[in-house]
Amino acid sequence: MTDRLYLYDTTLRDGQQTQGVQFSASEKTEIANMLDALGVDYIEGGWPGANPTDSEFFDHAPKTRAKLTAFGMTKRAGRSAGNDDVLAAVLNAGTDSVCLVGKTHDFHVHEALGISLDENRENISASIAHIVSLGREALFDAEHFFDGWAANRDYALSCLIAARDAGARWIVLCDTNGGTLPHEIEAIVGEVIAAGIPGDRLGIHTHDDTGMAVAGSLAAIRAGVRQVQGTLNGLGERCGNANLTTLIATLALKPELAALVPQITNAALKSLTQTSRRLDEILNRAPAINAPYVGPSAFAHKAGLHASAIVKNPTTYEHVAPDTVGNARVIPMSNQAGQSNLRARLRDAGLDIPEGADLAAILTDVKSREDQGFAYDVAQASFELLARRHLNQLPRFFDVERYRVIVERRRNALGEQISASEAVVVVQLRGQQVMSVSESHGQANGEDRGAVNALWNALGKDLGPYQASIDDTHLVDFRVRITGGGVEAVTRVTIDFEDGQGQRWSTVGVSPNLVDASFEALQDGIIWKLIRDGATP
């Protein structure tokens, strides 16, 4: 394959249909710029006129190299294309490309639209022709196409032909409910091409309800389509859409596919993990740990035998090098670890292993502490500090003398119940005692920033020469698990941090007391960051 494949992103529309996701106009602009930097060819900005956010986005649309596309539906029956106010709102967005969705499944034409098959086909033809007459690029989104093909292939195909003959640049075949299997998609695409719609005018749009949206997209590409649609991190309603993050990496890195996407540069590919995680940050959620290419565990090797093989030959268990997508190899430490894992992990952390170092003692300590409730395979920063302590390579930046947290529930001036937390932390810093106090107030809407937030602010509030490193750091996730039971129960807290350079790290704390476990993880997070920044004790 040597011809060109066009990448079409629908994150700003389909992604917004994800349960719990609602982008602001400014967030949509940031995401559009991120997509543009990746090298996608089309960015579907939303449905202008359908909601205030989408309209605001198009009113102040960013300047992108990619073609910004407005989405809408074909004209309604009984109106001309030039007289349909819903279609007019889409066209008024002023984009060079316009994508219109239309029905191609006879069941939906009768039951959802309540019109005849001929009327629906005429709506498609007239709408596409109207867009073309205005000098715009027209795309036809063939909704429920694969189900329509199964039910009445002659009619489904006739809708595609109507769009083709009206001048549609792209005709997008949609697996709207995500139920079509990859081999079926490949066969049907082949039949559509044989029926007279060339692959360089066909696109594929799949949903992930069977977990095969990426596979279905690749099957369609194999059959000849030359536009593929998807969303960053696979956002979308129900189980999501084809994951464009995964597709971009697969297309760019697999030799038999790479020639199709010359627009994806090596630099863009290296930004893929950061782009994926920035989207999660905007959504205030943790990255999917096992996401292909970009997940925190995408290149994690836990078993000792695997780690040993990785040291000798990284390609043994990695189909691509982690840094090609901006990710990193992780050799987690756990109670399953051996010395091969340990040596690899220490080397990756930049630690010198002195001659005669008692590595067995480190492993024994890890296994003993995991028996107490720690989990180092998901808290690499805390493991590194533990190893440094054994190797006498752990700097002492400060010593915590004491801390105190008070949580109070009260009513505010409006009579609404809120919670408030006050934290006091006292540290010894270069021979001086420093006391910091911070408050964290619950909000009237019920949001409670809580004791951990107050502790974090107090601990990192006044660390003198280290302040610049701490000010660049924020918490991105906080997880609590109770291990054991009865009087033996302890609390494990895992905290994820991120700094302004996009560097992420995780720490763990364990204690019978939730606040104490949190404080241990917070303290580890600060110390690890100071070491990474080259701070001097």
From TrEMBL:
EC assignment: 2.3.3.21
Principal EC category: transferase
Pathway terms, separated by semicolons: Amino-acid biosynthesis; L-isoleucine biosynthesis; 2-oxobutanoate from pyruvate: step 1/3
A Gene Ontology molecular function term of the record: (R)-citramalate synthase activity
Source species, domain of life: Bacteria
The reaction(s) this protein catalyses: pyruvate + acetyl-CoA + H2O = (3R)-citramalate + CoA + H(+)
Keywords carried by this UniProt record: Amino-acid biosynthesis, Branched-chain amino acid biosynthesis, Isoleucine biosynthesis, Transferase
Pfam family, one: HCS_D2
Keyword Ribosomal protein in annotation: no
InterPro entries per UniProt: 2-isopropylmalate_synth_dimer (IPR013709), AIPM/Hcit_synth_CS (IPR002034), Aldolase_TIM (IPR013785), Citramal_synthase (IPR005675), LeuA/HCS_post-cat (IPR054691), LeuA_allosteric_dom_sf (IPR036230), PYR_CT (IPR000891)
Start and end residues of each Pyruvate carboxyltransferase domain: 5-273
Biological process according to GO: isoleucine biosynthetic process; L-leucine biosynthetic process
Similarity section: Belongs to the alpha-IPM synthase/homocitrate synthase family.
PANTHER family referenced in this protein's UniProt entry, alphabetically: (R)-CITRAMALATE SYNTHASE (PTHR43538:SF1), ALPHA-IPM SYNTHASE/HOMOCITRATE SYNTHASE (PTHR43538)
Protein name: Citramalate synthase
Organism of derivation: Paracoccus aurantiacus
